[in-house]
Amino acid sequence: MKTESGLVVAAHGRHLVVESPDRQRRLCHLRGKKNEAVVGDRVLWAATGDEGVVESMVPRRNLLYRQDEWRSKAFAANLDRILMVVSGEPMFSESQLARTLVAAAQAGIEVTIVLNKVDLPAADYARTRLAPYRRMGIEVIELALKTRPDEAVAVLAPLLAGRTTLVLGPSGAGKSTLINRMVPEADAQVGEISMALGTGRHTTTSTRWYWLGETLEQGALIDSPGFQAFGLHHVPPEDLAARMPDMAPWLGQCRFYNCTHRHEPGCAMRAALERGDIDPSRWRIYAEIYDELSAPKY
Questions:
Q1: How many C-beta neighbours within 10 Å does residue 140 have?
Q2: CATH number for the domain whose boundaries are 4-57
Q3: Which of 184, 195, 207, 253 could be disulfide-bonded to 39 (CB atoms 3.0-4.6 Å)?
Q4: What is the band of 202 on the pLDDT scale with cuts at 50, 70, 90?
Q5: What is the tens place of the pLDDT at every residue in 266-283?
Q6: pLDDT tier at 227, thresholds 50, 70, 90
Q7: Distance CA 51, CA 30 (A)
């Protein structure tokens, strides 16, 4: 059976929408129960009438997981960047932001934080909360997507051009506004994909791929509606501090080589906390995630 290359632009269970190099899209199914494909995957597929079968997967550069109540589940692959959209109204969750950064570090993906709604009064407090992240060297850009859309597009365009970018953010932060500013035909693409999957326009759990157009050198946005938290269970607890840029400088300086940085004497990281070199909110997040990763798996 003749196969050709394709890109997974939407996935719902074992049903995929695969796009060929000429931008034609076709509903495909996975061959075999062990295979799993996510948006951003490159695959080899073969036509079977009006539909297709995914025969094999091209090796991934990276892979991200989301967390549901019981387990981590892969949802996006082969990313160049994550845009984490936050705001002061509603105020963002620092724990969710930190988990995003840990997941990205584990996968080797750059993160840019977008502070939206900087035209509103709560922006000043949001800036204060983001100060530790700026000090870590994480890029933070400030936008007002609704009131200053042209300025926002001008800032985002060079950041997104020629790259595959996952856009994340809590409800109300402006993620959908950002996607609609950068992809004016986004609603039409959602309708097309939903019809192909047979899921209806209001399916909010399927991750989707949007092309940014010729002027942005074939960059693309991936949207993951309903996003709650990254799955981090694939991160060994002893690797966590190395994935947090403000903790990593003190690794290897503790009295014990296997220090967990939670309670051992002679811990260089806790000494840095006491000196004010580590922000207390970041320390609380480290402890929270470390305890979660260390809990027995049943």
A1: 16
A2: 2.40.50.140
A3: 207
A4: very low
A5: 999 999 999 999 999 999
A6: low
A7: 11
Query: What's the predicted TM-score (pTM) here?
Result: 0.90
Q: What's the per-residue H, E or C state across the chain?
A: CCCEEEEEEEEECCEEEEECCCCCEEEEEECCCCCCCCECCEEEEEEECCEEEEEEECCCCCEEEEECCCCEEEEEECCCEEEEEEEECCECCHHHHHHHHHHHHHHCCEEEEEEECCCCCCHHHHHHHHHHHHHCCCEEEECCCCCCHHHHHHHHHHHHCCCEEEEECCCCCCHHHHHHHHCCCHHHHHHHHHHHHCCCCCCCCCCEEEECCHHHCCCEEEECCCCCCECCCCCCHHHCHHHCCCCHHHCCCCCCCCCCCCCCCCCHHHHHHHHCCCCHHHHHHHHHHHHHHHCCCC
At the second CATH level, the architecture of 237-294 is Orthogonal Bundle (1.10)
Residues 79-104: pLDDT tens digits? 999 999 999 999 999 999 999 999 99
The pLDDT of residue 66: 83
**Is residue 181 within 8 Å of 150, Cβ to Cβ?**
no
Contacts of 266 by beta carbon, 8 Å cutoff, 6+ apart:
254, 255, 256, 259
